[in-house]
Design a protein that fits this description.
Length: about 100
């Protein structure tokens, strides 16, 4: 029974989750997805075969199930294919904008 009490006290809500975005991630605006193609800003890019798409809760999502529009950061592999996409939360987007304005 004590283990249940401990589990009940843990707050595992995604609101308190913290994630680290890669330093080499490029900010962009996701416009559309039509696997294996994705449009970011005004560029049509190909998704890498092992692409990882992380939603706002940092869960990996299949290519066709995440929002088709919105702020993201992404990484490219050596061939120029999109290797990773992180759909930004409103807080992450605001922090990214503030950081770019400071530069």
């Amino acid at each position: 029974m004590p283990a249940l009490a401990l589990v009940a006290c843990l707050d595992v809500s995604p609101v308190h989750a913290y994630r680290i975005l890669p330093d080499n991630a490029v900010p962009g605006q996701l416009v559309s997805v039509d696997p294996p193609w994705v449009t970011i800003d005004k560029k049509v890019l190909r998704l890498a075969p092992g692409v990882r798409i992380r939603d706002r809760n940092n869960f990996i999502s299949p290519a066709g199930t995440f929002p088709l529009r919105g702020p993201i950061v992404y990484t490219l592999d050596p061939m120029g294919y999109v290797l990773g996409i992180w759909v930004l939360t409103p807080e992450e987007h605001a922090a990214l904008k503030a950081r770019s304005e400071d530069r």
